[in-house]
Amino acid sequence: VTLSPDARRTGVEGTIIVRCLITAAGTVEGCEVLKGLPLADAAVLAALRGRQYRPAQVAGRAVSVRHLFTIKIKR
Question: pTM for the full model?
């Protein structure tokens, strides 16, 4: 995650918790910040949306699932 210059300058650190939908195509959508950090939420959401995952499978078929991400931000 690349934080904004303001976030780096103020030394933002802590834990962000985000719930997202990983679609059957492996894309990340519908993210909701459950616990955020000032100046860091937008960067974390952009990083998650830019990722591609291997989708979960049920009976050999790809399915969408909700996933809880815990991201630790350190200086």
Answer: 0.84
